[in-house]
Amino acid sequence: MEIPKDKIGLKGRVKWESPSNIALVKYWGKFGRQYPRNSSISFTLSEAKSITELAYEILPEAQKEYQLSFEFEGKENVPFRNKIVKFLDSVEDLYPYFRQIQFHLKSKNTFPHSTGIASSASAMSALALCLLDMEKEIFNKSNLDINAASLLSRLGSGSASRSVFPTMGLWGKHAEINSSSNDFAIGYENQIHDIFKDFHDDILIVSKEEKSVSSTAGHALMDGNPYAEQRYLTAQNNILRIIDALKTGDLDVFIEIVEQEALTLHALMMCSKPSFILLKPNTLRMIELIQAFRKEHKIPVCFTLDAGPNIHLLYPHKYLKEVSIFVKEALKPLTKDGNSVLFDSVGLGPNKLEF
Questions:
Q1: Domain limits, CATH 3.30.230.10, in the chain
Q2: What are 16's strand-pairing partners?
Q3: Which residues of the chain form CATH 3.30.70.890?
């Protein structure tokens, strides 16, 4: 695709906000061009978002080096800029005309770093939406293709593919799920029981320390993990089981799968070569308290974890009062400084912003 000559010199601005997401069935292990070894499904969050602004100008001809500046939260950020340049390099076969554009990017998050929220998911999906919105303006397209946005997001960060959908996204080819794909995620918001549509996600920050291993390295270690193949089979089965629970509103099965998936993720890390342990003592203590609270009070609250020590506490809105007291009295004192909780909930997906 070549930029029309009458577009040379064109300037424009687009701005998007896109949320992070929390996976319920995890993907851990990938192959090829950022493809997942198993399907995954996630809640789209509401408050944890990246807000990205792209100002662009069409240059007379393609440039050898990408013309790109990047500010993060008001300051020039060279490491982040270099990551974006690397991403643009990786998609040059799909979007060669990017080299004929001068980019000025500004981005910020509504949440702090190192808090157990997947910032790559929100950041890369917001960037992808800006790039495709720019493409729509340059080539006079009538609509922004959500599948293309999910695909481009995936090439930046696998989990970002799910963030472009409201409420819930499913990513990864599954023989028994129509329209499922490794290339892009699909929206799943219309196929779940109402009780899941107002779920809360209280994020309890146990530690803000940088992880001892990156997610990229962790995925790569699955290639030599002795339990990898069984894991992929289990995940594909868990996807079918959780989809059924989501449709029927079966909270017991939902809780069983979500907690099993979280613990399996960390078990896989612990038996990788080299192995690594990201859980902290207070992570384990919180897990014990959550399970005891659920058993004693018969309230359907559960935990999940990403590749880090921080707890995501999931529960339906109807139990907000009881769970809020539990969080304040039992869990908040175990967070990093005794007050590190971020309150989020299931959200409506990305949104184009006006200037």
A1: 5-190
A2: 52, 352
A3: 195-345
Reported confidence tier of residue 116, pLDDT bands at 50, 70, 90 = low
For the stretch 202-247, pLDDT in tens is 999 999 887 767 788 889 999 999 999 999 999 999 999 999 999 9
For the stretch 211-236, what's the b/e string if a residue is b when 16 or more beta carbons lie within 10 angstroms of its beta carbon?
bebebeebbebbeebeebeebbebbb
The pTM assigned to this predicted structure is 0.96
By residue count, the chain amounts to 355
CB 108 within 8 A of CB 73: yes
The pLDDT tens digits of the residues spanning 19-53 come to 999 999 999 999 999 999 999 999 999 999 999 99
Residue matched to tokens 């690397």? 86
- How open is the CA angle 335-341-345, to the nearest 5 degrees? 140
Per-residue pLDDT tens for 248-305? Answer: 999 999 999 999 999 999 999 999 999 999 999 999 999 999 999 999 999 999 999 9
What is the assigned CATH class of domain 195-345? Answer: alpha beta
Q: Are 39 and 184 in contact (CB under 8 A)?
A: no
Range 5-190 has CATH code 3.30.230.10: yes
- Contact status, residue 175 vs residue 316, Cβ threshold 8 Å: no
Tell me the one-letter amino acid at 186: I
Chain centre to alpha carbon of residue 41: 10
